[in-house]
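Go through this chain.

——
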Amino acid sequence: MSAMRALRPAPFTSARVSRSRLNVRAEAVKIPDGFAKISPRGDRVLVKVAEEETKTRGGILLPTSAVKKPTSGDVVELGDGRVNGETRPFILKTGDTVLYSKFGFMYTDIKLKEQDFILIREEDVIGIMPRQNAQADDIPNMKPMSDRVLIKVEETADVTIGGVLLPETAKERPLSGTVVSTGPGKYDAEAEEKRKPMRVQPGDRVLYFKYAGDNMETPDGTKYVVLREDDILCKA
């Protein structure tokens, strides 16, 4: 097996995206009146945050405390691409619907004219969704960014060998799955295509670090994880 190093956002709202780390967020930066637009610099992109979910699928109005913070939005502006004295080409383009982590140390919240935006580096975007207003059932068609890998997770057993039914809290977290899609590779100025080639491909069965990536689930209960290629331990 070749050694390497290994996502659950769900319906693109923070309620079902989980990580095993502390989430500390600063308040959004409020842009003063008189400023009409924001122009990102470098490899950052400006994303208009998706509308908050205020109703369940059954139409029940949610109290403010239960409103799920979106973790997706539409790219409205690209930076100039200048990083460390060179100009990097963007993979993203304006209009793309992107998925990002709810853990905001990777981006800056901004409020402009009562609308919510984030400034985020292109490399920190998890993936590109196949359409606007994407839902959880679009997860299998997501295009991972950078060196990320979308993996369909293998289910763990509900029953022990002795026939004892396991509660959710007692199950071991899945560590294996099948690669659904991969990103274009991490940026590398010295590489021929400016991207490091990915070492895993769709269809590969892989093992990954237990707490790596962002976990997601479709409405039918199928589980996926998006993680960095370096978090993959090996492939079969």
